[in-house]
Amino acid sequence: MVDVLRSGWWGLGPKTAEFESRFAEAVGAGHCVGTNSASSALLLSLATLNLAGRHPAEREVITPALTFVSTNHAILQAGGIPVFADVDPDTLTIDPAEVERLITPRTAAVMAVDYGGHPAELDRIAALAHKFGATLVEDAAHSCGASYRGRSVGSIADLTCFSFHAVKNLAMGEGGAITLAGAELAERLRKMSRLGLSRSTWERTGVDSYSWDYDIEEIGLKAHLSDLPAAIGLVQLRRLGETNGRRRAIAGLYSAAFAGLDWLTLPAELDHVRSAWHLYAIRVDERNRFIEHMAGRGVATSVHYKPTHLYRPYVPYARPLPVTEEAWPRLVTLPLFPGLTDSEIDQVISAVRSFAVTSRC
Fold first, then answer.
1. Residue 191 catalytic?
2. In CA terms, which of 31, 114, 119, 199 is 20 to 30 Å from 279?
3. How many CA atoms are closer than 13 Å to the CA of 304, on its beta-carbon side?
4. Which of 15, 131, 168, 306 is catalytic?
């Protein structure tokens, strides 16, 4: 990062290109397009489908409601129509049976969200999407470093969108990426991320002169990655195996400590999946009292997420989602990040286990 600062080139430039190349190689993708956030990555991915230019009967995007609002904001921002699908009761990822029930010739895309770092059932969903000529967009904001049936997340879906936000597994402060197979679409996405400019400022900067001229082939966004966060990302990418390993170890300690608690539902990890363990989301009754109990013992918790269909802009698209609606009022996310000390882990475990005693008095 100091090298970037001293170079005088802080924007979109050589470090961004280096990060894109190394990240694509790391996940086994043909190409990577860096963005300023996962939200932008999702919007750019859907923008390539020209949803706004389609007949209204061909703009549907099947998506879960149990996700951060960025996932479904991108659908509306791109001119699509969200069709909410319920989730699997164990993994809380989009249920392939629901996708099969909802998919029609009106479906332009399917959003597969990797909840908590656990990949969705990508093979089955991809087969359904492609049968109907739809695009599979994977929201992998939680699952950097995860794998599905031995393949790295980022190498499976048509378009995979990552987050490098400050709290994510590969953290740059802010940033994101899209991985994909095709060179032509990657180049289009790269141009779209810089407002549609045919050449970036870096590409127009020569050794002895600067070419101001460029063409605009289509309207894009100001959404590209820059060299300062990319420099951080290059270092974080080298450490991803180590930091994800620490997350996995902490998750294992939690699961072992809580295995005998019949009032608590543990997060699942299927045999053919290696989760990135971005979140450790348990399910408990009396959630508010549990959160207060944890806070009283010095442990901060959170909730991921209030389902999107419960927010006002999404009311017109709401439909019954029984699994989502049963699960989310019980969800509580426990602390899980590589910097947790052994004593802090013990503190979390002790606080959780003591709630069982309190609740039975």
1. no
2. 31
3. 21
4. 168
